[in-house]
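Annotated sample (chain length 163).
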Amino acid sequence: MTKSMLIVFFDIQGIVHHEFAPPRPDHEHRVLLQCSSPSEGGYSAKTTELWRVGNWLLHDDNAPSHRALVTREFLAHNSIITLLQQPYSPDLAPCDFFLFPKMKLQLKGRRFDTVEEIQRESQNVLGRLREDDLQHVFQQWQWRWDRCVTAQGDYFEGDASQT
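Output written by the structure step:
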């Protein structure tokens, strides 16, 4: 089985940057560093401007690549603000509660013969995201974080799909 890792940076207005990389654990931190620095090239004017003025933060969803020493050193050296997430809390990560389920739903039941086909269709799904979809995601994200803070990090049950 062939795999490809999708890395997506998005904000309330749309996809800021995305790329595909081979899913190798020793490679993940390098990919994160490359995606976090406009000096690597191939970035939109928006990405470069956000980097230049420091008007962004990284939501750290506790992925192993985010915890790697080289990544932490890079983030500290470049004064990148990081919003840490409670361990084992996928309901707080927009990619986990919105983006990847949406992509899976739209790709479900389809058979792909090559990684390139999967990547092309994944890009099509990303291209169909509307600004109001992402605005709703960030409202949900805030609601989820507020709920977690109110519970003081303790486990709670409830409607995770609050609309």
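Annotation: Strands lie at 5-11, 14-21, 57-60, 81-84.
Annotation: The CA atoms of residues 103 and 128 lie 11 Å apart.
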